[in-house]
Amino acid sequence: MNYRFTNARIVCPEGGERTGSLHVSDDAIVADGDGEAIDLGGKLLAPAIVDLGVFATDKAAFAKGGIARIGLMPDQSPVLDDPGIVQRAAAMGKPELWVHPIAAATKGLDGLDLAEMAIFAEAGARAVATGRRWIADSGVMRRVMGYARDCGLTLIIHAEDSGLTNGAVATEGETATRLGLPAAPAIAEALAVARDLALAEETGAAIHFRQVTTAGALDLIRRAKARGIAVTCGITPPHLYLSDIDISDYRTFARLSPPLRSEADRQAAREALGDGTIDVLCSGHDPRGPEEKRLPFADSAPGSAGAETLLALGLGLVRDEVVSIERLFALLSANPGRILGLDTGTLRPGKPADLIMVDPDSPWRISADAMAASAGNTPFDGLPVQGKVLQLWKGGVRIR
Amino acid sequence: MSASDHNPGAVLNGSEAFPHRHLTGIAGLQPHEITFLLDEAERWAQANRARQPSDHRLDGITQINAFFENSTRTLLSFEIAGKRLGADVVNMAVAQSSVKKGETLIDTAMTLNAMRSDVIVIRHSSSGAVQLIASKVDCPVLNAGDGWHEHPTQALLDALTIRRRRGSVHGQRVVICGDLMHSRVARSNILALTALSAEVRVVAPSTLMPPAIEAMGVTAFSDFDAALEGADVVMMLRLQNERMSGAFIPSTREYHLRYGLTPERLARAKEDALVMHPGPMNRGVEIASSVADHPERSAINEQVEMGVAVRMACLDILTRKARGVEGWA
């Protein structure tokens, strides 16, 4: 089918913003053509979101959030460390949701032995990852990076020095002290980032820190980029909107990994999002039911269901003038697509017609009870936001 | 004094004096509410000393002591307090191994709730667990210690002991020394004593000092001797066995060298300074026997005595609404 989306406010991370029409022929964006006209009435037309580093294939939540592709973390049951499992993961969401598996970088994610990265890549893996954990052994990490580089795969890293974070459920500070929670110093992140940057520089590996949340670590990455090291990094909305004060009252929906940081770190993260240090805004989607969240804080599982709030919270950053609208879609679509080696994330002719139509001003209130996700564990319960996905298209087919 | 003198309606402005449904911590209490609890406990302390027969105000009230963490003294203290007021006291000792984590905690809370208990006393090893249970049950909940978070009745009994022995808490220089990091006793005491305008100094090696503790209105020291200068009260914390070797302190003898309360060290405090310890003590580690047993200076046995009085006051006050006491409905 051919379509013409007319009267659209078109936002492309590479082409900028313009008002007019976009043409689609079959599954791709084309420069010109005819076909069924769809009048968008001035609404936003943008590349569909590529959500890099999620923990569940939660189709309903991703569709509601305008997410057409996900980079699935290897921390599944079973772990993505077998070609058959990788292949099955890659196929499980089609056609509505394209799942791009991120395979385990070490066997069983145990941080000890190299996994079969080349075989996983053949099976459809788009990157490899350390999983939810950091690889503490520097010798192992050096070999993992060298081997990932040989295989042409980006290594996705969870950056927290486990010697400092072992047993911790919060960031050291007044809140954790008052609540009597085991806490780790924020420097645990900078220490991990510093080591892995040094190893990346030496091995020539391409690395991506899935979440960087502290001023110290962001500063290291800013300087590493200036030196030309192949590093990128991401963040999720909670670390841009919330700080450790939000775990007061032991709200387990605000128990995250890495934990919420100080207000100063939150401000530094917003600044780093604005100045280009941070490359990816992702949901970290990790739905957790009451059996894992309705517990004492330290006994509960970390993580939040973020897929369907990602875009609205991202648009909030545009309204707060932290980022421009083009840059928002670089963070949500183009950059994560590039890191996964996908030919998507922009509206250039020839690219797949993965599109979202958005009413950026439409108000709604985030409600844990009304979420499409398999669990409603959002730390933003009750927050009024603006921006709704009206339509989601994947490869020229309307999904929502 | 007879039991009838305890009729609260005659003396107090009813629930305005203590408008809380639960006692989950000292945090959230106003200074006058803490003083109210201490005043009430003081009356029970006098009644207990006078060996008055049991009061019967909690007749027909079911008190469940649900202890998810081992305890001997606190459990006994709550049991005696309840029984002296006539309550039917049931102890539920839940070993951490059988009811560990998961939905089980909420399930247990719902079970207790379904049994129509009138007041539940809870101890649990996770910070915030008591608050979580309190949010799920219909009756008042009393925190008997949650993780590293709070142990409010301990702080109240300590404040009462200080008030009785020093005349007032206001303006007293109180030195709290030991494993502050893992201590709910320390957190509750800091909150209660600073609310009552004491000057609180905390002392620990940096490995056992909670970060940003000064934000709670205290002065932090790593040098015990310096902290002791001019102290009115020296409160020693128990060093848990599992933290005695290696990870946090090199050895008990090194700990004793730097943080043990010896007679020589105590001489730096005021001549009549009070020595306190929440028990059970490690004699020869955090406190020398001659200090712990000092007839004038040590208030350790009085702390245990005040514990019963404070818990009687809390059980009485938290059940007033359910008992339909005038002014508390």
From TrEMBL, chain A:
Q: Which GO terms of the cellular component aspect does the record hold?
A: cytoplasm
Amidohydrolase-related domain ranges (all copies)? 129-397
Q: Which InterPro entries match?
A: Amidohydro-rel, DHOase, DHOase/Allantoinase_Hydrolase, Metal-dep_hydrolase_composite, Metal_Hydrolase
Stretches assigned to coiled coil: none
Output the Gene Ontology terms for molecular function: allantoinase activity; dihydroorotase activity; metal ion binding
Question: A Pfam family for this UniProt protein?
Answer: Amidohydro_1
Source organism, top-level taxon = Bacteria
- Mention one GO biological process in which this protein takes part, according to its record: purine nucleobase catabolic process
Q: What Gene3D superfamilies would the database entry show?
A: Metal-dependent hydrolases, Urease, subunit C, domain 1
Q: Which UniProt keywords apply?
A: Pyrimidine biosynthesis
What is this protein called in UniProt? Dihydroorotase
From TrEMBL, chain B:
In alphabetical order, the GO MF annotations are:
amino acid binding; aspartate carbamoyltransferase activity
Which EC class is the enzyme in?
transferase
Question: What pathway does the annotation place this protein in?
Answer: Pyrimidine metabolism; UMP biosynthesis via de novo pathway; (S)-dihydroorotate from bicarbonate: step 2/3
Q: Give the E.C. number(s).
A: 2.1.3.2
Domain Aspartate/ornithine carbamoyltransferase carbamoyl-P binding span(s) in chain numbering:
21-163
In this chain, carbamoyl phosphate is annotated as bound at: R73, T74, R123, H151, Q154, G279, P280
Is Transferase among this UniProt entry's keywords? yes
List residues of the Aspartate/ornithine carbamoyltransferase Asp/Orn-binding domain: 171-316
Matching InterPro entries: Asp/Orn_carbamoyltranf_P-bd, Asp/Orn_carbamoylTrfase, Asp/Orn_carbamoylTrfase_sf, Asp_carbamoyltransf, Asp_carbamoyltransf_Asp/Orn-bd
Q: What does the record give as the reaction this protein catalyses?
A: carbamoyl phosphate + L-aspartate = N-carbamoyl-L-aspartate + phosphate + H(+)
Q: Which UniProt keyword terms apply here?
A: Pyrimidine biosynthesis, Transferase
In its UniProt record, which GO terms are filed under biological process? 'de novo' pyrimidine nucleobase biosynthetic process; 'de novo' UMP biosynthetic process; amino acid metabolic process
- Give the UniProt entry's GO cellular component terms: cytosol
- Per UniProt, L-aspartate binds at K101, R184, R238
Q: Which SUPFAM superfamilies match?
A: Aspartate/ornithine carbamoyltransferase
UniProt function note: Reversibly catalyzes the transfer of the carbamoyl group from carbamoyl phosphate (CP) to the N(epsilon) atom of ornithine (ORN) to produce L-citrulline.
The family this protein is said to belong to: Belongs to the aspartate/ornithine carbamoyltransferase superfamily. ATCase family.
Cite the record's note on assembly: Heterododecamer (2C3:3R2) of six catalytic PyrB chains organized as two trimers (C3), and six regulatory PyrI chains organized as three dimers (R2).
Q: What is this protein called?
A: Aspartate carbamoyltransferase
Q: Which organism is it from?
A: Stakelama pacifica
Which lineage ranks, top first, belong to the organism behind this chain? Answer: Bacteria, Pseudomonadati, Pseudomonadota, Alphaproteobacteria, Sphingomonadales
- Give me the gene this protein comes from: pyrB
